[in-house]
Amino acid sequence: MEYNFRDIEKKWQDWWKENKIYKVSKDSSKPKYYALDMFPYPSGVGLHVGHPLGYIASDIFSRYKRLKGYNVLHPMGYDAFGLPAEQYAIDHGIHPAISTEANIKNFRNQLDKIGFSFDWDREVNTSKPDFYKWTQWIFLELFDSWYNRQTQKAERIKQLIQLFEEYGSDVPGVKPYAFSFTNSGWKSFDKKKRQEILMEYRLAYCGIGEVNWCEALGTVLANDEVINGVSERGGFPVVKKKLRQWYLRITEYADRLLEGLQKVDFSDSMKEMQGNWIGKSSGAEIDFRVRIDESVKETKETSSSDPSIEVVHVTITETEADESLRVYTTRPDTIFGVDFMVIAPEHELIDVITNPQHKKSVEEYITYVKSRSERERMAEKKITGVFTGAYALNPFNGRAIPIWISEYVLAGYGTGAIMAVPCGDQRDFLFAKHFNIPITNIIGSHFSGEEANPTKEAILQNSDFINGMVMKDAIDVVIKRIEEMGMGARKVNYKMRDAAFSRQRYWGEPFPIVWKNGIAYPLDEKDLPLELPHVDSYKPGPEGEGPLANIPEWTSRHLETNTMPGYAGSSWYFLRYMDPHNDKEFCNRKASDYWGQVDLYIGGTEHAVGHLLYSRMWTKVLHDLGYIGHDEPYKRLVNQGMIQGSSRFVYRVRGTNKFVSFGLKDNYQTDRIHVDVNIVDGVELDTELFKQWRNGDYMDAEFILENGKYICGTEVEKMSKRYFNTVNPDDLCIKYGADTFRMYEMFLGPVEMSKPWDTKGIEGVHRFLKKLWRLFYDDSPLSDKKGPGTKLWTDEKANEAELKVLHKAIRKIEEDTERFSFNTGVSAFMIAVNDLTDLKTHKKEVLEKLLILLAPYAPHISEELWHQLGNSDSILNAEYPTLEAKYLIESSKEYPISINGKLRTTITIPLGAPESEVEQIVLANEVIQKWLEGKPPKKIIYKEGKMVNVVV
RNA sequence: CCGGAUGUGGUGAAAUUGGUAGACACGUCAGACUUAGGAUCUGAUGCCGUAAGGUGUGGGGGUUCGAGUCCCUCCAUCCGGACCA
C-alpha cells in the first residue's frame, strides 16, 4: 500500500470539517491558550509561499498545546480595508467590496489546502459593518476620553469638564493648555471655545496636519508614493498641504508603552525597536533671547590661526530682546559650546526674526525644502541651510549666536529648534565646517578638530561657571541654574509623535462624526455602524478630501469625509475573536477575562512599530476604561522572517532571438530578462516550457547551451509577481501534499530568519514521509499483489534500543517545539525514522507515540495512520507521550581529547570516572603520547561530560 | 542618515550553557536492484594533500587552556523609518 497523500489529505480535511474538530469554546476544565497570527491583507495576487510560514509555525504550536491538554483558541481573519483594493477599483472599476470578497475566497481556498486548525466560526473581516461597527464604537470611546497624567489613565471627558468647571485649567494631572484659565474663565467660554479646548485633550482628536498633495493627480499621496519630491506615478510635483486630520494621542501613553515592554516576552531587538521609536530622552528646554534689530552689526575678518576660517565679529547694542527662541537639548552641559542655532524650515519664528537683508535667500531655501519629504531630509547627506541674519543670546554670558535654518532639524521633534554644539555633535560639526562657522572647543583634547566627540566624560573648559566639571555632572547643574533664572525647564521628550488617524481615501471605516459649525459631534451608539456608502467614483474631493466628499447624501448630513487608516481594525481584532458574533458589545467581558492575553502572537517584523504600538495603546485605553482586564495584548511575540524570492534570469543576445546560457553570456552583448522560476529546475531552464511561456512570446527562441543545458542566472529579490519569482503553495500541495509542504517550510531554517525560497530541497522531506509510511506498510509494487497482508506493524513489545530512539525523539521534539526551533524538530523526526528503519522497527507501541509527536507537524498522515492503527477518535485528542528518562541513561562517553585546544583523538571513558583516572587514561593513550613527545603536560583540563584538554 | 537583523561547505542549514564545526536534508559522485528510472537501497562528499598532516565559521585585532559563540574594529547583504500592508 502506497502513501497516497492526495486522497488522505482530502479525506481528513473533510472529516475535520464535518466533525468540527477545530471548534473551540470556553472550557474551564482546561487551561486556555490563545495562539494568534497577524491576519493577512487579502491582496489580489493571493498567497505565496512566504505567507504561510508563520501560520504553519503557529498551527504546529496550537496543535502541540492542544495535545498537551490546553483549550486552544486559534482563529484567522482578514485585514480587509486598504489602499490596494481602492487602487484596483480606480484602475478596473470594480468595487473594493467585491474584489475584496473575491480575494478572501481565494485566500480561504489556499489556506484550506494547507490543513490549518483554524476555528473558522470565529473569522473576522475588518471591512464588514458588523466588525467595523465596533471599530467606530472604540473610536468614540477614544474621542470621549482624555489622559489624566496624575492617575496615568484614560478617563472620561466629562470628568475633565468637571475639573475645568471646578478648578479651571491648572489642575494636577491635566496637561497645560496654551493659556491658563480659571473655573469662571471656563464658564465664560462659548460652546465652540470649550470644544476647541477639549479637543486638545481627547485621545482621538482632530487637528491640522500636513499631507503630500499632488495637484496634478488631485490626490493625497503616501510617503512612499513620493520620490524625490515628485509622484511615483506620473512624476508630478508634490507639495505639503495642510488638511484637517484625525490623530490618536499615543504620546500620552509613551511612558506606559515603554514600561509595558518589560512585562512581555518579545525579542530584545523588538523591544529595542519599539523603545527607539518611542525615543524617550531627557534634557531641558532653554529659552534664548533673540536680537533682530538694527543694533546688530557684523564685521568679518580672516582668522589669524587658520586662514580658511572667516571670523565674524558681532557687536550688539544692548536693548531689550524682541523675541525668544526655545530649544530642546539633551545636553545642557554644552551650553558654552553653542556656536550657532538651527531652526526647522517650518519654524514659526522665521518670518519674525529674519533680517530683511536675508529675506530673499531664506524664502528661496524654504521653497526648496517644501518640495522634499521628511524622509528625504533625514536620509540625505547633503548639507543645506541658510542664515537668517538674526542672533540668539546665550542666557549665561550674552554671547551672540547666529540663527540658521536647516532641514536637518525637524519641526516635529522637540521645539523644532536646536542649539548647535559642533565640537560635540557630528551633524552640527559638519554644518559648521560647511558654512565656515568657527568652532568653540569646550572639551579640550577630547576634540580633535577632525570630527565631533559626543562624550559625556570630558572635563569642561571655556564654560564659565561649570569649568572643570565632568560633563555628565554639569547637566543637572545647568538645568537648575536655568530653572532658577526662569529661562527654561527640565523636559522629557519623545521622538514618537501622535499617530495620524485619517486618510483621504474611500476604502476604510467612516468616522462616526458629524460637523456642525466647526464642532465635531459623535454619532449616537444606536446609529452605529455608520456604513460606508456606495460610490461611483473614487476620485478625491474638491479640496483633497476623501471620495466621501463627493456624495451629496453624505455631505448634506455634514458627516466627516475622511476614513480611518489601515491599522484601525487591526488595533483590536484580537479581542473580537474571543466573542465574534456579539452584536451588543465589541467583546463580552467574561469572554475577554477567560481568553485574556494572546499567549503567542506570530507575524513579521515589518509591524514592529506601527501595528504593535497602536494595538498596545488601544488595549491600554480599553483597560483604563474598564472594558478588559489586561493592559498588554500580547504575552509572547515571535517574528517570522521574510521569505525572499530567488529570481532566475535568461540572457538574450541583443537584437536577436537567441538566449545564451549563464556561463557563456560574457561572450555576447546581452539583456537580462526575468524568467518564471516555475519553469526552471534549480538553475536549469526547461527550454520547452520557456517557449510556451507568456502565451508563446518566446516561441521561436533559440538557445546557446553549455554542456547541453541552459543555465540561468540567479539573484535574491523580494518575492513578487513582477520578478516572476513567486511560488504558489497550492502547486506544492498538489505535487507533494500539505504535510510535505508544511514540514518543508519549517525545515527551511529558523522561523525568525529571512531566507530565499528554494523548492529544490522539498524532495527530502517528501522522502521522509514516505519512509515513515514504510514503517507501517510495505509499499513495494509487489506487496499489493500479494493480497491484503501489506501492513507491517505488530503488537510486539519494544526493546530497549527502540525505546531509546523513541524517547530521544520525545525529548528533542518537545524541546525544539517549545523553543520554536521547528527546523531542528523536523530533522529530529528524520533521525528517529532513519533509526527505526535501521532497527526494522514496526512495533505499534513505538510507532503510535511517534505519530502523536508528528501530529502537529504533519496532521494528515498522522491522522490517517492513527486511524489505521485502530483508533477512532482524532489524534488531536490523544495524550502527548511523556519522556521517560530511564531509557536515555548512558554509561560512557566518547570524549574529545585535545592538545592545546586542538582535537587530536577521542577516547571512550565511563561517565563518573574520577579525574585522576581520566588523566591516567588520557596520558596512556598512544596518540596523546606521540603529541607529548615525552614531555610532561603543564595542565590537564577535564570537564565531565564535555571534553579533555591537555596543555603542553 | 537613523534603527534592527544577518554573514558557517556547491546549496538550505546544525552546534540550546565558551568545549568534537558542518547534525539533518538538497545536490554531486560511485555502486546495487531493475525492461526502464525522475522509484528504492548502500557508500562517499568542507578545502589542500597519495598520506601523515595542514587548513577552515565575511576581513583584521583581542580575551581564554579552548572562540562560530565573548570584546573591539572594518566590510557586505537584507528589513523598517510613520498614507504599501
In round numbers, the mean pLDDT is 87
Shape: globular
Biggest beta-sheet profile: 7 strands, mixed
First and last CA, distance: 62 Å
E-strand count: 35
Write the layout of secondary structure elements.
Elements: H1 5-18, E1 32-37, H2 52-67, E2 71-73, H3 83-92, H4 96-113, H5 129-143, E3 145-148, E4 153-156, H6 157-167, H7 183-188, H8 191-199, E5 204-214, E6 219-221, E7 226-227, E8 230-231, E9 239-248, H9 254-260, H10 268-278, E10 280-291, E11 296-302, E12 310-316, E13 323-329, E14 340-343, H11 350-353, H12 359-370, H13 374-379, E15 386-393, E16 400-405, E17 417-420, H14 426-434, H15 471-485, E18 488-494, E19 499-500, E20 513-516, E21 519-522, H16 552-556, H17 567-570, H18 573-576, H19 589-595, E22 600-604, H20 610-624, E23 637-640, E24 643-653, E25 658-660, E26 670-675, E27 680-681, E28 684-685, H21 687-696, E29 702-704, E30 713-717, H22 729-736, H23 738-747, E31 755-756, H24 762-776, H25 781-785, H26 800-818, H27 822-838, H28 844-854, H29 859-868, E32 892-899, E33 902-910, H30 915-924, H31 926-932, E34 939-943, E35 947-951
Parallel strand pairs: 1-2, 1-22, 14-16, 22-23, 24-31, 25-29, 32-35
Antiparallel strand pairs: 3-4, 5-6, 5-9, 7-8, 9-19, 10-13, 10-15, 10-18, 11-12, 14-17, 15-16, 20-21, 24-25, 24-26, 24-30, 27-28, 32-33, 34-35
Helix pairs in contact: 1-29, 3-4, 22-23, 23-24, 23-27, 24-27, 26-27, 26-28, 28-29
The structure holds one RNA strand of 85 nucleotides.
